[in-house]
Amino acid sequence: PVVLDRLNHPSAVSAAIPVLAQAAASEGFINARLDPDGAVREAVLTAQVAGKRWNHLAISMLEVGGEADKAQRLLRRAGPDGSILIPYAGPIAHVRTVPYLSVLRGDLSATELQGKYVLVGAWATGLGDAYPTPVSHDVSGMAGVEIIANLLQAARDDIAFQQPPGWWNGLFSALPVMLACLALWRLSPKRALLVCVALLAGILLAALLLLAYGNFWFAPTAALLGVALCYPLWSWRSQEAALRYMDNELRRLQREYPPVLNEARAQAAGPSASLESRVGELRRALARVRNLRRFLADGLDGMADATLVFDQDGRMRFRNQAAVMYFQRLGMRPPRVGRPAIHLLEKTISDPATRQRVAEALSGQGSIAETSPWSADLELRDRAGRDLILKCAPIHTAEGNFAGTVATLTDISRIRQAERQREETLRFISHDMRAPQSSILALVEMKQESGSQDAQSETLSRIATLARRTLHLVDDFVHLTRAESMTISEVELDLGSLLQDAVDEFWASAQKRDIALDLRLPLPVAYIRGDQTLLMRALCNLIDNAIKYSPAQTRIECGIDEEPGFWRVGIRDQGLGIAAEDLSRLFEPFSRVGIETRGDVGGAGLGLAFVRTVAERHGGSVDVSSELGAGSVFTLRLPIAPEEPPAGPRPAA
Questions:
Q1: What is the DSSP letter of 36?
Q2: Which of 102, 324, 477, 629 could make an S-S bridge to 107, C-beta 3.0–4.6 Å?
Q3: Which of 542, 535, 548 is nearest to 620 (CA)?
Q4: What are 616-649's pLDDT values in tens digits?
Q5: What does the alpha-carbon distance between residue 102 and residue 525 come to, in Å, rounded to a whole number?
Q6: Whole-prediction pTM
Q7: What angle, rounded to 10 degrees, do the helices at 532-548 and 495-512 form?
Q8: Looking at domain 302-411, does it have CATH number 3.30.450.20?
């Protein structure tokens, strides 16, 4: 054996004494490579010194012993630096040893040495030729000669442990950690813990199997450490994230939902609060949510209208006490939770056409709310003959997503009964009171046409005037009442055409009183939505009112202007004007102002009240500006129809 000065780039060789060197069949170095922890895990098989190649003593012995092929196979398995992991056959003293003195005394027969490799070296611990190895952790170390014997025996048995490239080791270490992270992300904590334990066992088993059957040594320490740290680190960070989220949500809950039912307001736990304090705060928050739910449930139960709450699939999830009583009055069992809304509401409706409308509304056809699958505001009649209003409104989550619907059934039977009685009263007024007045007028006209010029003519003229005033009063009252109660039809109209028709209707009346009735041209194409009859009568009332209270040889100007969101109709006269203290009650029913200054022209003060009612029913307004002696300006504002066609001037008539 020879000794190199160092294994990494050796420069000198400590050769054997000349006598032994000359007698030796071959030479080889016996240097051992120590790892950073002082253990011998690998051996260098070849080295170059001054251009000469030196083999390890085990390689040289194989070549001399006639097993050069095994030596070459071992050299081919060595790494780029000529090193190879030592496959230790077992712990210390696994290789048979015989004291040197016994051999000299002849205690060992020749047959026991025949066909064997014999290594001679120091064995005693005190001689210092002992090194730590992976299999000598329980004692001081393994003798150098036994390390060489293990390497030699492994070469003869064709066993060589190879150390894979670094990226193989990195993949072997990273893959279990990635699997552990994936399990922590996708599985429950209990299952993730089981997966981590299984990965730890799998890493050790894989390393052993690869070493035993593949002769590859993968260092498992990094993988074991990574997987072992994954679960506690994930548990710590996930708990911190959960607690932080819980703190934020508790603070948000306190801001958005104040305590109800005399709850004590608690302070939100801070970042340094203990888990027990956070659990206590969560317990109080859950109690607040339960109280809030009870608060809302009791509030819905206290409502007089039947109320049903449906989820996003249209199935009932709540009904108040009024709903239970309503269905019992219909002779039906109270609806069960989970009942479909369409089936439930259809059973309460008697009219097939109305049932179809409700079914379309609840199935989402023609929905009003973009975020709600169905919305409805329908008037219907149930099987018991009661008049109802069905109102459906969507429920949304805090993020704005559709969560369900609230449906209410409001009993308006008494209201409709009162309206029917009012209609009967109106029919009585419009027919039974008009008929005698019409008869009186007919008799007066017949008498006047007879040509008699007696003293009764003046009396008949007064009777006719009073009858006409009574008829006018009845007409105004009927029109005002209907304007207040009738359903407004949403028809697209041209306000300019309506104003032109109204001016044409009163042009002759204005000329008869020597009043100029002018229309400011060109008129814009002013599209609005509403009831043509009501709007036409409102314009006629304004123009008629201006003619009545304007002196002769004056001018009345009518026109249309546009302002943001509205069309503005202006009626300007040159009459006596209205006092400032009378303007506030000008549009009140039965209100007549300034009679003493302009004479009695008849009327009961219902015309302007009708105009205000029509304007408000159409979403608009009416106002007046006036000064005594300077005339008045009546302004009617009506909303511009949505998605109207492009406006342009109207050609002069």
A1: T
A2: 102
A3: 535
A4: 988 999 999 988 878 899 999 999 988 754 444 4
A5: 131
A6: 0.44
A7: 30
A8: yes
